[in-house]
């Protein structure tokens, strides 16, 4: 039976302190021959990974997942354990990856009508307030995007009025 006391692994069959084995630091496996993944979160003191298995002690850096943190997030995910989804408003580039795997920033910009690092804000410059007198009489303040939307809003309003008024 062994237990970890920081940087020294003590094995119960060794009685003398001079016979204790030194633990691997940022390495693992037989003879500490394998390096811990660079994708492990860094620790203040000690090793980033388990000295036997290589599993990251504090887990993976954002943008990576799996037992040894060697797998990057898929094209549409990012963050801790790849648990967040990229915005559907990101423009998809030719390489497939649409957002930064660590923070979710859109790599190739936004689809038209969206702004922000994650394309999560509607671009206010593309919108205009309606000054239609009919909408004003109804006490509605409608924000529309282009003439197609205005036509749809007016048709919907007419249908609404036909249903409500006897």
From TrEMBL:
The keyword Transmembrane applies. The chain crosses the membrane at residues 142-164. InterPro entries: MEGF10/SREC1/2-like (IPR042635). It comes from the Eukaryota. One of its GO terms (molecular function) is scavenger receptor activity. Keywords: EGF-like domain, Membrane, Transmembrane, Transmembrane helix. This is Multiple epidermal growth factor-like domains 10.
